[in-house]
Structures are given as C-alpha cells and as structure tokens.
Automatic annotation (TrEMBL):
Keyword rRNA-binding listed: no
Gene Ontology terms for molecular function: ATP binding; ATP hydrolysis activity; branched-chain amino acid transmembrane transporter activity
Family (UniProt): Belongs to the ABC transporter superfamily.
GO biological process, any: L-amino acid transport
Domain of life: Bacteria
Keywords (A to Z) from UniProt: Amino-acid transport, ATP-binding, Cell membrane, Membrane, Nucleotide-binding, Transport
Organism encoding this protein: Orrella marina
All residue ranges annotated as the ABC transporter domain in the record: 9-241
Coiled coil region boundaries: none
Pfam families assigned: ABC_tran
Protein name (Swiss-Prot/TrEMBL): ABC transporter ATP-binding protein
Length: 241
C-alpha cells in the first residue's frame, strides 16, 4: 500500500560517481513516515555512498533527494541537521579525546532549548544505561560496542526526524547488536523515521518494515522486509540459507 503512504525521505534517480567511475545508477527509494527502511547489499554495493550523498557528504551527478517534500540535494550536513536529518556514520567518527558527555553535547550544540536538550540527554541514557557510568571517560577509551552506543546517542541528541544509520552493528558482539537493534525500533516507535544500511541482513530485515536490495550500485529488489526475508534469492545471497 505504499501508494497511499506519506514519505519523509525520497531519493529519485540518483546517479553518483567517484571521479569518472560511476557507483550508483538511477537509485530511487523512499522512507515512509513511521517506518524503518533498510538497504541491504554486499561489500562495495554502494550502500555507504547512498548515505553520504543523502547527508551532503558527497555530490550526486544527477537525481534528487527530498526531505519532507523539499529538495535538499547539495545541502551540507550543517544545513541538513536543523532540518531534522542525522547520520550515524560508518566507523562512528567520535571525538575520541573528548568525554562521552562532551560527545553527546556536541550532538546538541545547535539546539537552543536547554530543558529539551536535558530531556533528550536523560532519554538517551535510558536507551543506553551502560553509558551512565562512562559519561566522564574519554570516548576513545570505551569498548567498540559502547562507542557505537555513543555514536547513536550523539545522533539522537540532534533531535532528528529522520535518522540514517550506516552499518551500526558491524563488528559488534551479538548482545550489543541486540541493544542497538532494540533502540532503533524504540526510536522508530517514538516517531523518528529510519534509513538503515546493513551487511547484517538478518537483523536488518527483522527490525525493518521495508527493504531494498542494492547490487553493484543498482536497486534490484524492493519489498516489505518480511517478504524479502522469505525470498529464496535474498535468503541465498544475504541470509546464508
Ligand atoms: N572515496 C572513494 N573513492 C573512490 N571510490 C570509492 C570511494 N568510496 C567508495 N568507493 C567505491 O565505490 C563503490 C561503493 O562503495 P560503498 O562504500 O558505497 O559501498 P558499501 O556497499 O557501503 O560497501 P561496504 O559495506 O564495504 O562499506 C565501491 O566500489 C568502492 O570501492
């Protein structure tokens, strides 16, 4: 019933190159309001490139990106954050010498309402109680799993309406993967729309409402996540079944 849905994020006909090498070909996808949408695909399929272009970190050759119906292609991350978009980048990109608290404050640095920032600070610590005793430690001293929690928490401190997550569970222990997956669902229930890029297709399809399969820079399949999870080709290529 996607025809009747309201979309928060719409990519249409995106073509992207690195130098002269084309890596995305006519990529179109939509994030429905109230949903978690995932892009699954192999190494090098172009998943991170989609995220970088949407977040204004790399230019597209052609196509469009609309956020709540407004064309935002070419805007910088600094312009997109106040419009409600945030990215949890691959590799976390924390400020390693700064404390966990300072990293979280950096997420909120543009916001002006101290009570709202404080409420979100308390909320992210409810999402990630493991971070409570670590607030005054440097981010770089934390385990990989805790650092990923800080990266997600920092993104939430921007008060996003749409959150992009690029491989948030890569290299993490199963227990931490469960925590991150649970928070993504809760965040979605709280009204943040999510675009999730994952190599862990099993987890991604489990927590997502809708999914796209990206192969060699092209969307080759799209369907509700439960349908993708039971598609024999997807099972063979991405779920190891
Ligand atoms: N900065 C860059 N310069 C040149 N080529 C790049 C650059 N970044 C990525 N590529 C190439 O673009 C293609 C898509 O890469 P991208 O990182 O978007 O894929 P991915 O699906 O996210 O893969 P991974 O899961 O390994 O991160 C790959 O062939 C990659 O080698």
């Amino acid at each position: 019933m996607r025809g009747l849905d309201v979309f928060s994020l719409e990519l249409d006909g995106l073509c992207v190159s690195y130098g002269k090498v084309p890596v995305l070909h006519d990529v179109s996808l939509k994030v429905t309001k109230g949903q978690v949408v995932t892009i699954i695909g192999a190494n090098g399929a172009g998943k991170s490139t989609v995220m970088k272009v949407v977040m204004g970190l790399h230019k597209a050759t052609s196509g469009s990106v609309r956020l709540f119906g407004k064309d935002v292609l070419g805007k910088s991350p600094d312009q997109l954050t106040p419009l409600g978009m945030t990215l949890v980048p691959e590799g976390r990109r924390l400020f390693a010498p700064m404390t966990v608290r300072e990293n979280l404050e950096m997420g909120a640095y543009r916001r002006t309402s101290a009570p709202e920032v404080q409420a979100d600070f308390e909320k992210v610590l409810e999402f990630f109680p493991d971070l409570k005793p670590k607030l005054d430690l440097t981010a770089g001293s934390l385990s990989g799993g805790q650092q990923q929690m800080v990266a997600v928490a920092r993104a939430l401190m921007t008060s996003p309406k749409v959150m992009l997550l690029d491989e948030p569970t890569i290299g993490l222990a199963p227990a931490v993967v469960d925590v991150i997956a649970g928070v993504i669902r809760q965040v979605s229930n709280d009204g943040v729309d999510v675009l999730l890029v994952e190599q862990n297709a099993e987890m991604a399809l489990e927590i997502s409402d809708y999914g796209y399969v990206l192969e060699q820079g092209r969307i080759v399949l799209e369907a509700p996540a439960s349908e993708l999870a039971s598609n024999p080709e997807v099972q063979k290529a991405y779920l190891g079944i």
